[in-house]
Every structure is written in structure tokens, then in C-alpha cells.
Amino acid sequence: MNILIPYYSRSGHTERLALTLAARLRSLGHCVALEKISVQSVRSKWRLALPLLSTLPVLPLYLWNTSFRRWWLQRYPQAQQSIQALSYPDVSSFDRICIGGPKWLYIAYPVARYLEQVQGLAGKPVGAFATFCGPPLAIFELEMLFTPLRQRIERKRAHLISTLAISSHFHEFFFFNEMEYVFRLISRLAFKKSLSSYMLESPWGEREVQLFCTALCAPSLPKSANL
Ligand SMILES: Cc1cc2nc3c(=O)[nH]c(=O)nc-3n(C[C@H](O)[C@H](O)[C@H](O)COP(=O)(O)O)c2cc1C
């Protein structure tokens, strides 16, 4: 299969995952091209946080109420960021597209812009992968990222067949990476496991990569496999 991996990475963790996926898919006999999405101008972390501030007050209600969550994920203001010209602006010649980025509360802004700009997605089976600091919390991490991603992919008349989320154990907020310690604690409380149990190098990470690649390359295409 011809597989394109477009990915954005600000601090290198998602890039490492993209390269791991490329190596794994190549070892399975597929032909893989990488598209590194670059922003036109790099923003400070404080500027990145600004578009998210207005969405923070709804977070408690979001976490507590399923109906509100469904409503909100259709309507929240998704920020975008200008990206540089793409090497593959039209992806119609690929059999699979495997899009990756970090979680920035929701979709990372350059990935949101990529999904708007890219041509030729219609009818394509798409995989989506991400890194974030936390453990794989179903509502706060997975749903908050992959539901809006799936909506945007489906708006392009493509379908999401496979998702992968790995903890980077890294968060640049606030001053001294304090958020990383918050997520370490959440991992212990919610899963009774250390945050490093959900990293790429862990047996769990290895298994998730394998499941993702298998679902991505499966010849039959159930519409929501591995979601
Ligand atoms: C603006 C912003 C928002 C973030 N939001 C989250 C979040 O909601 N959950 C989380 O676990 N990590 C969050 N992170 C941490 C990143 O997702 C994490 O560090 C990621 O692995 C970075 O990937 P990269 O090195 O490829 O850029 C956020 C980081 C930034 C800069």
C-alpha cells in the first residue's frame, strides 16, 4: 500500500511516533511517505494558550454531562494556525492517510489547518495518531481529540478507521512543566499505573502501535474499527 503520514510536532514527541509508525509500516512491506507540517511562524507557548482560555470555563460541565459534551464538540471554537506549503497538497494517489499531531486540549491548530487545506481526501481510509502528556483518559484526552478530528475527516468525505494515542510524559505548561506532575498524579489515581506505562517504549505502547498499524492496513474497511 501507498501510505502518507502527514504530521505536526512542536517539541518532537509526535515526530518520534510518526517515524516509529513509518518504520513499522515499511517493515510490513508498505511504501511510506512523510509530510512534516510546518507552521509559518512559531508561537510562544503563552500565545498558544490564548485561544483555549475562553473554552476553559465549560470544562467542568464538559466532563460531567454527556449531552453537553456531544453538543460542545460540534460547536467549540477550534483555532487554526497558518502552515507552510505542503509537499503533498493532494493526497488522492495514496491508499491510506495517517494524520498525526499533539493534543492541544482539542486538535492542534496546524493540524486543523492541514485538514482544511488538504485536497483529495474524499473516500480515503484515514488513521489518526497523537501524543499528549496524560494517560489515555477516555473523555478528557481521547474523546476530546478524536471526536472533532473524526468530524473534520468526515466533512472531507473520508473515514477514520484507526486511532492511536500515546503519552509523551511531557507538558511545557506552566512555568516548570508543572502540568506533567498533575498528569502523573491523575495516572496513579485513575489507572493505578505510572504515566510511563503509557509511553511509546512501554509494552502497552508497543501493543497500541501494532494494533493501530494492523487496523490501518486491514483490507476490509469497517467504518469505525479500533475507535
Ligand atoms: C497549547 C497546548 C495544549 C495542550 N493540551 C494538552 C491536553 O489537553 N492534554 C495533555 O495531556 N497534554 C496537552 N498538551 C501537551 C502536549 O500534547 C504534549 O506535550 C505533546 O506530546 C507534545 O507533542 P510534540 O512534542 O509533538 O509537540 C498541550 C500542549 C500545549 C502546547
Commentary on this structure:
This protein is an alpha/beta fold and 227 residues long. The protein has one domain (2-217): Flavodoxin domain (Rossmann fold). Helix content is 42%, strand content 18%. The chain has 8 helices and 6 strands; from the N terminus they run βαβαααββαβαβαα. It has helices spanning 13-27, 45-53, 59-64, 66-75, 109-117, 138-155, 178-191, 203-217; strands at 2-7, 31-36, 96-104, 106-107, 125-132, 159-167. Strands 1, 2, 3, 4, 5 and 6 form a 6-stranded mixed β-sheet that branches. β5 (125-132), α6 (138-155) and β6 form a beta-alpha-beta unit. The longest helix has 18 residues, at 138-155. The model has no long low-confidence stretch (mean pLDDT 95). It binds flavin mononucleotide. Flavin mononucleotide binds at residues 9-15, 45, 48-49, 102-105, 131-134, 141, 168, 170-172, 183.
CATH topology: Rossmann fold
Residue share in β-strands: 15-25%
The termini sit apart by 22 Å
Total helical segments:
8
The hetero compounds bound to this protein are: flavin mononucleotide
Question: What portion of residues is helical?
Answer: 40-55%
CATH superfamily: Flavodoxin domain
How do the SSEs run, as a string of H and E? Answer: EHEHHHEEHEHEHH
Number of domains: 1
CATH class: Alpha Beta
